[in-house]
Design a protein that fits this description.
Elements: H1 2-10, H2 13-51, E1 55-59, H3 71-77, E2 82-92, E3 104-108, H4 113-117, E4 122-125, E5 135-138, H5 140-145, E6 153-156, E7 159-167, E8 177-181, H6 182-188, E9 197-202, H7 208-218, E10 222-225, H8 227-270, H9 272-280, H10 285-322, H11 334-360, H12 364-368
Parallel strand pairs: 3-8, 5-7
Antiparallel strand pairs: 1-9, 1-10, 2-3, 2-9, 4-7, 5-8, 6-7
Helix pairs in contact: 1-10, 2-8, 2-10, 2-11, 8-10, 8-11, 10-11
Length: 371
Amino acid sequence: MLDLIIRNITNRKIRSSLTICGIALGIFAVIVMGAMSENFHQTFERSMSVTSDKIRVFAESGVFGGGLTEDKVSDVLRVAGVEDAYGLLMTTFDEDKMGMTGKQILGVPPEKSSVALNPVQLKAGRFLDPGDSYSVVVGNNIKREYNLEIGSKFEIHDKYFTVVGILDYTGSIFDNAVIIPLETAQDLYSVGNSVSYIFAVPDDRVDAEMLSKRIELSVKGTSTLSPGELEVQARQSFMIFSVITISSGLLAAIIGGLCVMNTMLMSVAERTREFGILKAIGAETKDILLLTLGEASLMGLLGGILGIIVGIGAVQIMNAWLATTRIVLFLITPRLLIIAMLFALLIGALSGLYPAYRASKMSPMEALKHA
């Protein structure tokens, strides 16, 4: 059966090749879009893991609405169940690029830097210490992009900072973080004693969700986001992003499936007499069905393999090109490869169902009448 399937495909080299390329194009799109989604998913998961124990306190108008100052930190600390609290100032590193590079300035009270970054570990150096003014701790991607070492000078807004710490790679937002003392950040950006938000660390014996509501009720002019609420919001955003990225890939793959169906329908029409002869010499309906489905599935398999190979190559090339800006946009995972291959096989098999059904229902006598 397999040798017959292979022969039937190779007998129509141009048509079969175009069909396989159609499927490959769809799977290529699935790989590229899926790799983008996988990278976003990994960054999301790892970012959540390093900030999931803290409650975020914002101004009522939101994180970009202003109105939150360091004075509120003491108010948050007075709420029963809050073990620690500190303000952070967050802004983009490259303002002219609208944050597209993902690099961020984090202004952190020096005495709280190890707590704010916990459980991220240091690759070299130390965290910020009380009294630091123009010292900086950088994420792993920042270190590689600017070729920094401990003691290197790093320019931020025409001011030179000394690198005192380099964070270990985490695969999270902290890889693109530039951490400087809070007061220095406030002076650099002329924002007085404003902060973007306040991190509240719950006591181990306190329910974080309940404490979040208590802070919001107790500290006037604030709204909060508990770890649970943050995860729900982040997962919703991730789901929307995944739907947008994967949908375009699936659309291309479905178009590839239509190519298979068109090819198989034409093949069935051209081989009417052949199917009649096969039935006349004893081939059963299931044999004709398996033969036609086998051809469609094999083209799906070949298209899937080709699409995966080209997709992986394209992703590697794009990641290498983006490496100049230290952006990692794509991530190939075993899960993505398995899904892509299964989808290619499924597209091939489903697209061959109707042609196979038509072929299997042919009457031997009617089929033999065809020239």
